[in-house]
Amino acid sequence: MSEFNERQPEQNEYNFEDGIKQAFSQIKKLLESQEYVVVTVCGSSHDVGKTQLAAKIMQEISARRISWAWASDIASTMDKPNFTHQPETKGHVLVFGSEQPAREHPLLNKQAQDERLAKKGKKFGLPLTKVDLRIYVYRPDKPFTQDELQYADIIIRNEQAEDKPRRP
Questions:
Q1: Torsion angle of alpha carbons 73, 121, 104, 33, nearest 10°?
Q2: 3-state DSSP of 58-113
Q3: Calculated CA dihedral for residues 92, 148, 141, 3, nearest 10 degrees
Q4: Is the pTM of this model over 0.70?
Q5: What pLDDT score does 119 carry?
Q6: Residue 23, class by beta-carbon neighbours within 10 Å (0-12 exposed, 13-18 middle, 19+ buried)?
Q7: For labelling, which of 25, 90, 101, 159 has a CA lying 20 to 30 Å from the CA of 12?
């Protein structure tokens, strides 16, 4: 058994497919009580499946005729999110597909992320006040630190992700 497989799974940890189902279940539940849901997808490193995960979540949302918008990360979002128009929309989901994981750092903790988001929400005229669902995705050979994992609502272990070829 490799050193990466010896780590005990967290209570909120899922494989890729089950993690998508769990994420959508939580998004649906949040939409029952609020009009906007903010989701961040955070990776432990590059090539762990952030883009694939965000795309799958947006496919699930779209298939259920829920309005959504995608942005890379909170800090670099300069323009108002362009939500898809869905007839008879039951809420809106904003997915940040490449957010930094929250950690014990003055600029990267949950409070700082939520404050940045609230400022953007105010700037865009949207009722965005906090990240509602933090999804962390990792590969066994590229794990998160325990400090980072404490802030995850859902942890997804992506066994299928592989390094992409890099340009020289």
A1: -100
A2: HHHHHHCCCEEEEECCCCCCCCCCCCCCCCCCCCEEEEEEEECCCCCCCCCCHHHH
A3: -140
A4: yes
A5: 96
A6: buried
A7: 90
Strand partners, 36: 92
Q: What is the pLDDT of residue 165?
A: 84
Residue-by-residue DSSP string for 117-130:
HHHHHHHHT----S
Pairing verdict, β 36-43 and 154-157: unpaired
**Are 62 and 68 in contact, with CB atoms under 8 Å apart?**
yes
Quote the CA–CA distance of 55 and 131 in Å, as a whole number: 18
Across the chain, which has 168 residues, the per-10-residue mean pLDDT values are 48 93 96 96 95 94 91 92 80 93 83 95 95 96 89 94 82
User: In angstroms, rounded to a whole number, what is the distance separating the alpha carbons of residues 130 and 116?
Assistant: 9
pLDDT of residue 168: 74
- What pLDDT is stored for residue 117 in this prediction? 96
What is the rounded distance in angstroms from the CA atom of residue 78 to the CA atom of residue 76?
6
Give the tokens for residue 65: 């005729």
- Tokens 């050193």 correspond to 3
40 closest CA partner among 114, 120, 141:
114
